[in-house]
Amino acid sequence: MSYIDGFLAAVPTANKQKFIDHAKSAGSVFIELGATRLLDCWGDDVPDGKVTDFRKAVQAKEDETVVFSVVEWPDKATRDAAMAQLPDLMKTDDRMNPEKNPMPFDGMRLIYGGFAPIVEL
User: Domains along the chain?
Assistant: First the structure.
């Protein structure tokens, strides 16, 4: 069964195109490393919750949009092998180098994790 990495970020709304460019560039590395699908979603209907919500989770400001991203891998082993290569790629591949392709958002508020699917319809 596949393995999923999920990401949630608050991106300055004015940086939408910068985010798209960054995601296409960095995301192409994940595809080359074996990811089967990459999906970046710009928040369109992200309501405020009573206790918590997506905006609170990433401490989104009024001028920021919540972005939800998913990288699908064929399995956890492929994902783990790809992640093991990232530190070196951040030094050698401009697409992953934060100085050459900086994140157009505050990476300190990025939330991410790996997930094993349990239901697939």
Answer: 3-70+78-115 (3.30.70.100)
